[in-house]
Amino acid sequence: MTALEQQAAHTDAGDAAPRQSFLRRHLVWIVIGSIVALTLAYVIISRLASDPDERVLSPGNPAPAGAMAVAEILRTQGVDVSEPGSFEEALAMLDAKDGTATLLLYDRNGYLGDEQLRRLRGAAGRTVVVSPARRTLRALDSGGLRNAGVVPEGKGVLEPGCEVDDPRIAGNVSVKKGQLYTGDGNICYRVETGGGLYAAAGNGRVVVLGSPDLLSNDLLDDRGNAALALRTLGTSPDLVWYLPGLGDVPPDRNPATLDELAPPWVAFLGPWLLLIAVLAVLWRGRRLGPLVFEPLPVVVKAAETAEGRARLYQDSRALDRAAANLHAGTAVRLARVFRLGPEAGIGALVDAVSRKTGRPPVEVRNIFDHRPDSQSGLVQWAQTLEQLEQEASAR
Prior knowledge:
The protein has 395 residues and is an alpha/beta fold. 49% of the residues lie in helices and 11% in strands.
């Protein structure tokens, strides 16, 4: 081996030794970092690969708020459950069935307009709407049905109380919360207020379910919820399960402007209130004067700090806090005069002051323990403390 080869081999060995030493010292952290990186990569990839359906009452949502269970049961019983992604798709599915399909509509945010609701109602053989608002009921021509409040707290189990086949056969149902309806149709699951959780109008062509709990995975197996859901949605071989989204909002439904939302009196009082606010800003701003710029750091004298704090106590009428500060300051200064240690109590200080001034200990103790109840009393007590301190400090 030549000298050049020996030198190269020596250099390689020297470079490898620090690398091996580094790996030995940081092996544990390298392993932990690799595990964390692989875990994060797995979570990110799995999250991107699968977009879970988390919509309330969605037939693809297996969570408690979803409705996958009732949708799968309906499919096993021969019902073709379709889930359109838009209003146009839902209307096309209903038109394809020539008015024989059942429409399940849950427009929880009120995205659809009146014309859209009327077109859906006309294309469906039967419309089952969940927790509809007043406008939705009116647009669906629901036979005079109207909102009648909410299910009272503590009324989790309701009895049918009517002769409609589906609720009567299903029996009692269980809900956590829901809306009540009343009107000219058949009202079931009534409460004391008169409204019911189930309403049917137009010879059963429009059915109102007042709570998503009746179809949710969470309560489907509780009491007669499953029976009511299956009988209500399984009357025809085709079910269009429609959950409107933000993209279904009609273009002519513009959001309300501020002028439309504001009460009428704002048009009259608004300009005056704005003028008063501007005048108040000018008044309060001018009284403080212009800003003064000082080079940093700024040195503030102790006397100015004490005076500023005293003015704050005076403005807030903090008599107790001011009296406590005066008492503590006098006690510290007198203890320093008589060279009393930090462990000395008020009794030792009173005895020392009494011996020096010739005043009775009771009088000195009363001066220290006094707490004024007015600003004038605070000034007089402060003067008394100052006089006592001068007598005790005199040589």
